[in-house]
UniProtKB/TrEMBL annotation:
Catalytic activity: a phosphate monoester + H2O = an alcohol + phosphate
Class of the enzyme per the UniProt entry, highest EC level: hydrolase
Cofactor notes: Binds 2 iron ions per subunit.
Keyword terms, alphabetized: Hydrolase, Iron, Metal-binding, Signal
Cofactor(s) listed in the protein's UniProt record: Fe cation
Transmembrane domains' residue ranges: none
Positions contributing to Fe cation 1 binding: 58, 91, 94, 254
Record protein name field: acid phosphatase
Enzyme Commission code(s) on record: 3.1.3.2
Coiled coil: none
Domain of life: Bacteria
GO molecular function, one term: metal ion binding
Record-linked Pfam families: Metallophos
Length: 324
């Protein structure tokens, strides 16, 4: 045999041993060993609810004040559980919103922070007071640039099907900041007419009515009795009662809260996406309050509305379920 043929044959045999033998050994075990990182977790924790979404607010701070950590935990949470979309409760960009749909703040506060694959779903935001300090219409125009940012107007509505003929959820997304200013009375009057008409004309298959705005109408944060809270309460309480709104979801106070004042409507606050503000314990009608970074996770079917408050470490701080 010529020397180069011998070397060539030896090399091929050795390569075959490397490639074949481990595979044969692996096959002989009859088992497949995969770590959790090797498989998709999108359906690892299934449940029987029809609709799921996360809510986060007061977040846009270039990743600071633990915004990045909250975003990372949101990504992990949504990768392991069903999630249809994300609601932002306002103050999307600090300190003064954006000046245009091309403002670099979109990159530094949003696109480069919420990077997980599981967060590349639809986001449905409302405007906060900080968003009104520059050009709030730029946040509407950004909807034409971003695939996931969906804000068709300063106030708008969305109906979500619960599937299999089990009805729908009505989301009424409102613009609360102008309600605080007398010089914007005409705008507020027009918006309130629209809110009342939207809720009044809700179809018979609407099982849950959820209103989303930035300013709370009850809180145990720093703004318990300040003008913002009292003004929104004055304007919106009658609306909530008359139209039997199930949930009012807001931000503004930088914490996680659940308050149940008199009437039908539950107040949930999810404003802990970055900087925190303190909460007061022992206030009447308060079911939960925490000054911890995090978000809320909602699961809904025709008879149940489940809410979880989750901190940036993935710990569930609170869970409640509304039924009807």
């Amino acid at each position: 045999m010529r020397r180069r043929d011998f070397v060539k044959g030896t090399a091929i045999a050795a390569l075959g041993a490397v490639l074949v033998d481990p595979l044969d050994t692996f096959a002989e075990t009859g088992e497949t060993q995969l770590s959790s990182d090797d498989v998709s977790m999108s359906s690892a924790l299934p449940d029987d609810y029809s609709l799921h979404f996360m809510a986060v607010g007061d977040w846009g701070r270039n990743g600071e004040y633990d915004q990045t950590k909250v975003a990372q935990q949101m990504g992990l949470w949504a990768a392991q559980r069903p999630n249809n979309f994300i609601i932002s409760t306002g103050d999307n960009i600090y300190p003064k919103g954006v000046v245009s749909e091309m403002d670099p703040q979109w990159h530094y506060c949003f696109e480069s922070i919420y990077t997980a694959h599981s967060l590349q779903c639809d986001w449905f935001p409302v405007l906060g007071n900080h968003d009104h300090l520059s050009d709030p219409d730029a946040q509407l125009r950004y909807s034409k640039i971003s695939r996931r940012w969906n804000m068709p107007a300063k106030y708008y509505t969305k109906e979500v099907d619960l599937k299999n003929g089990n009805g729908k959820v009505l989301f009424v997304m409102i613009d609360t900041d102008p309600m605080l200013f007398d010089e914007k009375k005409d705008y507020t009057t027009k918006q309130l007419t629209w809110i009342n008409d939207t809720l009044k004309n809700a179809s018979s298959d609407i099982k849950w009515k959820i209103v989303v705005g930035h300013h709370p109408y009850y809180t145990v944060g720093p703004r318990i009795k300040n003008y913002d809270t009292l003004k929104i309460r004055e304007i919106m309480t009658k609306v909530f009662q008359e139209h039997k709104v199930d949930v009012y979801l807001s931000g503004h106070d930088h914490s996680l809260q659940h308050i149940k004042p008199e009437g039908v409507t539950h107040q949930f606050i999810s404003g802990a996406g970055s900087e925190l503000t303190p909460v007061t314990s022992g206030v009447a009608n308060t079911r939960f309050q925490a000054s911890e970074h995090g978000f809320m996770y909602f699961s809904i079917d025709k008879n149940r509305l489940n809410v979880k408050a989750v901190n940036m470490d993935g710990k569930m701080l609170y869970e409640t379920e509304l039924t009807k």
